[in-house]
From TrEMBL, chain B:
This is Energy-coupling factor transporter transmembrane protein EcfT. It holds the Pfam family CbiQ. Its main location: membrane. Belongs to the CbiQ family. The chain crosses the membrane at residues 12-44, 50-73, 94-116, 225-243. It is a multi-pass membrane protein. It is found in: Membrane. Keywords: Membrane, Transmembrane, Transmembrane helix. The lineage of its organism: Bacteria, Pseudomonadati, Pseudomonadota, Alphaproteobacteria, Hyphomicrobiales. InterPro entries: ABC/ECF_trnsptr_transmembrane (IPR003339). The keyword Cell membrane does not apply.
From TrEMBL, chain C:
This is Thiamine permease. It comes from the Bacteria. InterPro entries: ABC_thiamin-permease_prd (IPR017195). It comes from Microvirga arsenatis. Signal peptide: none annotated. The chain crosses the membrane at residues 12-33, 39-63, 70-94, 114-136, 148-171.
Length: 562, 261, 194
């Protein structure tokens, strides 16, 4: 089952030829026409703005779209040289392992070990063999033995993602397809998984959709960029695309690696790296202070400084003595129907403050956030302050009514006049790039659209003095994140207190003057974000990583000391 | 150790127990069933007696309904007892009501016995291996069983989201009006979850045809045989005792009330 | 939506999952019935009966395929037994009879029409079937004809309102949540608009 013999004949593991997709009763195609081919052993990244049809395209691969999710698909789709339509979706499972965008969509709700063994059971492998492979997958992905008997519904968002990845990796299929596989993973876990997913193996092709490029992009052989209209904008090696199409990507709101910006700065200074860099280290390797000429290094300094300045804290620090808007005192926090996981928490959040909350997966960040916003009763201790708003880690949890418009209307305070309400809704939709979707069901949106809608319901009014945003950047494209940053800073300016739970260290560094690190059943550290981020021991202990600009900062220090 | 038994042997014993409880319309028989089952749970499964009592509350409420109807509507006792299908045995409405009450608790106890000692996954696996249940049906049932406990946490999430939007505090226990308002969202959640699970099952290759391995399928061991023989003998002995005591009059196998389905 | 008569995996799962949720609701309704019964006397059963037909009506109106109404009701009964309904195993028979009553009505439209009148009729169908069944089980022949007629009419009304009409309301409310996208009902409704 390792590789289909036919793949050698046609040469492609997967191939879309002139494919278009239209959802029923939609006015236009979401995809296409698109032609993409993935060769055996190739690792392809599919990149594009939110709502450009990436997930839809992946779902057509084994025929789930049109077979199980109604849509009209035209064009040819082939897997290992065989037309997809000739088999039912389930018959492809031995060849294609699929991780869907949402871990909950990938998992069936069973216990962890059953979940991981499921695909192999379906292939009627011998029990002993299955047991060995399950064990191996758990070790490789980092799923602890102690989770074996736990139902996946009692895991935290990131833990669930790990299990779902183990359940798809265990299939060891010749084609691995993953839709944002690391969106909810803490930095260290994300790095490990990126390396695992993209391990080079001539018998395994990989097709990944991701917005999170750091640590992934180095392992990619080719990338395909989709535009808003669902057609291909660019295709080629990451190095060429990120240098040649930089402006196009930026204008479409598509993520580029952090190094691309440094590359631009260096180019501007006339000292561009010889090859387009994919990591900050690469970008600076030709101006190593110990090896390169002093002249080159001197020319690079202002560029690097400008780059680092981009990642400095941008929002004003909290005014000294600003009133406390919410406070936990000696609080014990437990998830609903779960055990107490955080003890003796003392945490205050002030007017006009943006507080960062970091920690490994399962550390208790979401639980702490819910307690801080006053929505989850404490096991012990007390909370003072007005009730807050909360952006759930799973955006679906936010939705209580039937359409996008009603969802926003519902979040407006009652005293707003009816006429103003329509205006508020229209402006919120425009701000978050959701115009035209107002009559859609929230659950039919793409993942990034769902996230934006959920955030729009929270930021549209001033009704919550305290806001807690749980991983708001997961699934967002670059445009979405810049909207989010603008909105957060506007709320901050109006005196709100915002706590943001995130795994994105770069974002945190820009937004949060102060942060806390959660772990080991309590708060490990509380202080200025910049200080926390330079404490490598703390970062390692809490499963975090340095922000991308750290290397550039170190470079500046080395230059200064030379 | 009860957990280690094959779910199918427990299922067999429980079904026999339920049938016996329905057929033998005798208060003492029901009491014996309740006591024996409860004692087995506490002794062999280390179930806390308090938990057991708490679990019996809804069944007692349910049973109490019969008791009060037969007490309050004495004038209808003809109707009520005929409904109870045991006019031959006792014309006394109260004893009929009492038996119905005890029967509700006995059935509840047997069901709880099954639920507390059996992992639903193991049951489905056993059915797939030993009863040739098709995997698609098996996993559908499995998904439904897994859903029920998740309804609680999903309802809680929904209540949090609503409390946030309405600005009212969440009550620890939802009132009847709030429960009613959660019915539709919970149904919608269930249907969505079903669709999602179907996609996940299909994507990982659950096929309607062909062989598949069933891991950790419970097998039948000697302890199963011992359990079945012991349990059935106890039920048979008690049943026989009840019958002989009644004096050979067969209680009609009619059920006491119209059951909702 | 698949146009074939066979059920897709998604549809199978939806029927079982609806069975599970309605089983919980049915058990709750039993409590309502008992309280009402204690106050108003035994005829209450006929008044509240219709709610116990609702699973088959909702499932059928959503999936619109042969066998759905019957299977949903039997499954609900099975899950209730698993959840510990004291009514015991005979519940399966009751469920089968009631499900068959609704199924017969849908079969009469060749599983094509699921408008409100058909749903109301399905509720009445289930009521009639269940009435015949209880007649046999409890020897209704011994009752006064007046009471019998009253009981029959009450039960049919209950089947139509608590079963058919309430079922219709639930389906409409569910449709508005968007959870039914891609199912037969969604297809029918959108084509009706288009
Ligand atoms: N089931 C559906 N029915 C109708 N429209 C849908 C459905 N699923 C997605 N869409 C729409 O199709 C478009 C593409 O969605 P898709 O999920 O493929 O986007 P995406 O590129 O994966 O975006 P993201 O990065 O946000 O995940 C979106 O505009 C979305 O609203
Ligand atoms: N119902 C439950 N039963 C048992 N344990 C639970 C339950 N719910 C959550 N937990 C555990 O509580 C811990 C904290 O969960 P929480 O969701 O707060 O983590 P988190 O820090 O937000 O993680 P992530 O980054 O993955 O979202 C996790 O280890 C999780 O496994
Ligand atoms: Mg997507
Ligand atoms: Mg979390």
């Amino acid at each position: 089952m390792q590789s289909d013999p036919q793949s050698h004949r046609t040469g492609f593991a997967a191939e879309w030829h002139e494919v278009t997709v239209q959802y029923p009763f939609a006015t236009r195609q979401v995809v296409g026409p698109v032609s993409i081919a993935v060769r055996p052993g190739e690792r392809v990244l599919l990149l594009g703005p939110s709502g450009s049809g990436k997930s839809t395209l992946l779902l057509t691969l084994t025929g789930l779209v049109s077979n199980s999710i109604p849509a009209t698909v035209s064009g040819d789709i082939c897997l290992f040289g065989v037309n997809v339509g000739t088999r039912q979706p389930w018959a492809w499972a031995a060849q294609v392992a699929q991780y869907f965008q949402d871990a909950d969509q990938t998992l069936c709700g069973m216990r962890v070990e059953d979940e991981i063994a499921f695909a192999l059971e379906n292939r009627a492998l011998p029990p002993k063999h299955i047991a060995d492979r399950v064990m191996e997958a758990m070790q490789r992905v980092g799923v602890p033995e102690s989770w074996r008997k736990r139902p996946t519904s009692t895991l935290s968002g990131g833990e669930r993602q790990l299990v779902a990845l183990a359940a798809t990796l265990v299939q060891n299929a010749p084609l691995f397809v993953a839709d944002e596989p690391t969106a909810h993973l803490a930095p260290q876990a994300a790095d490990r998984l990126h390396a695992l997913l993209t391990e080079h193996d001539p018998h395994r092709s990989v097709l990944i959709v991701d917005h999170r490029l750091e640590g992934l992009i180095q392992h990619i052989d080719r990338m395909v960029v989709l535009g808003r209209d669902g057609t291909i904008l660019a295709e080629g090696h990451p190095r060429t695309i990120f240098r040649d199409e930089r402006d196009l990507l930026a204008s479409e709101g598509i993520w580029c690696p952090v190094a691309t910006m440094l590359d631009a700065q260096l180019e501007h200074a006339g000292i561009a790296p010889p090859a387009a860099p994919l990591s900050v280290e690469e970008a600076l390797s030709h101006v190593d202070p110990a090896l390169s000429s002093r002249e080159d290094v001197d020319r690079a300094i202002p560029a690097v400084k400008a780059f680092v300045a981009e990642y400095a804290v941008r929002s004003a620090p909290t005014a000294l003595g600003a009133p406390v808007l919410a406070e936990l005192v000696k609080a014990d926090c437990a998830p609903f129907l779960g055990p107490t996981i955080l003890r003796n928490i003392d945490l205050a959040i002030h007017q006009g403050e943006i507080l960062g909350i970091f920690g490994a997966n399962g550390a208790g960040k979401s639980t702490l956030g819910l307690c801080l916003s006053g929505l989850l009763p404490l096991k012990a201790g007390s909370r003072t302050g007005a009730p807050g708003g909360y952006a759930f880690q799973r955006p679906e949890n936010q939705f209580t009514v039937g359409t996008v418009r009603d969802e926003i209307l519902d979040a407006l305070p009652e005293q707003v006049a009816a006429r103003d309400k329509a205006e508020h809704v229209a402006s919120a939709l425009a701000t978050w790039g959701l115009s035209g979707l107002e009559n859609r069901h929230p659950f039919e949106l793409s993942q990034g659209q769902k996230r934006r809608l959920a955030l729009a319901t929270l930021t549209v009014s001033d009704r919550w003095p305290v806001l807690v945003l749980d991983e708001p950047t997961a699934g967002l494209d670059a445009l979405g994140v810049s909207t989010l940053m603008r909105e957060m800073q506007a709320l901050q300016g109006r005196g709100h207190a915002i706590a943001v739970i995130t795994h994105d260290m770069d974002l945190a560094l820009r937004l949060c003057p102060r942060s806390i690190v959660v772990g080991e059943g309590g708060i490990l550290a509380d202080g200025p974000t910049q200080e926390l981020m330079s404490d490598t021991a703390l970062l390692r202990r809490a499963g975090l990583a340095e922000p991308s600009c750290a290397i550039a900062l170190q470079w500046l220090h080395r230059v200064a000391s030379c | 150790m009860l957990k280690a038994l094959n779910p199918l042997s427990k299922l067999l014993v429980c079904i026999v127990g339920l049938v016996a409880s329905v057929l033998v319309f005798d208060a003492r028989f029901q009491v014996v069933l309740i006591v024996v089952t409860g004692f087995t749970l506490v002794a062999l499964n280390r179930t806390s007696p308090l938990l057991l009592l708490a679990l019996m509350v809804p069944f007692c409420l349910f049973g109490l309904g019969f008791l009060t109807t037969s007490l309050l509507f004495r004038q209808d006792s003809d109707f009520a007892t005929r409904m109870a299908g045991e006019a031959l045995l006792s014309s006394h409405a109260f004893s009929a009501g009492l038996t119905l009450f005890l029967r509700a608790v006995a059935c509840g106890m047997i069901s709880v016995f099954f639920a507390l000692t059996t992992d639903p996954a193991a049951l489905v696996r056993a059915l797939m291996v030993h009863a040739r249940l098709p995997p698609r049906i098996g996993y559908s049932l499995f998904a439904a069983m897994l859903l029920v406990p998740d309804l609680a946490s999903e309802a809680q999430q929904m209540r949090i989201a609503r409390a946030m939007k309405t600005g009212r505090r969440i009550r620890r226990v939802p009132g009847p009006a709030e429960i009613m308002s959660l019915v539709i969202p919970m149904l919608a959640f269930a249907i969505r979850r079903a669709g999602r699970t179907a996609l996940a099952l299909e994507a990982r290759g659950l096929s309607p045809v062909g062989p598949r391995t069933v891991l950790n399928a419970p097998s039948f061991r000697r302890s199963d045989a011992i359990f079945i023989i012991a349990a059935l003998s106890v039920i048979a002995l008690c049943g026989a005792a009840a019958f002989s005591d009644i004096g050979g009059v067969l209680s009609l196998p009619l059920v006491g009330h119209e059951e909702p389905a | 939506m698949s146009s074939t008569r066979g059920w897709t995996l998604r549809e199978t799962l939806i029927v079982t999952v609806l069975g599970a949720v309605f089983a919980v609701l049915y058990l709750g309704w039993v409590q309502v019935w008992l309280i009402a019964q204690a106050i108003f006397g035994p005829v209450t059963m006929d008044v509240v009966m219709g709610f116990w037909f609702i699973a088959s009506i909702v499932a059928a109106a959503i999936i619109r395929k042969p066998g759905v109404a019957f299977a949903a009701e039997v499954l609900t009964a099975a899950v209730q037994i698993l959840l510990g309904s004291p009514a015991g195993l005979l519940l399966l028979v009751t469920g089968a009879v009631q499900g068959a009553g609704a199924e017969v009505v849908f079969a009469a439209t060749r599983w094509r029409n699921y408008s409100l009148p058909v749903l109301l009729t399905a509720g009445i169908g289930a009521a009639i079937f269940s009435f015949i069944y209880t007649w046999i089980r409890f020897d209704y022949g011994a009752l006064q004809p007046g009471i019998l007629i009253a009981m029959f009419i009450l039960r049919c009304l209950s089947g139509a309102l608590l079963g058919g009409w309430l079922g219709h309301l639930i389906v409409e409310a569910l449709y508005r949540t968007g959870a039914l996208a891609g199912l037969a009902i969604d297809h029918a409704k959108r084509s009706a608009i288009a």
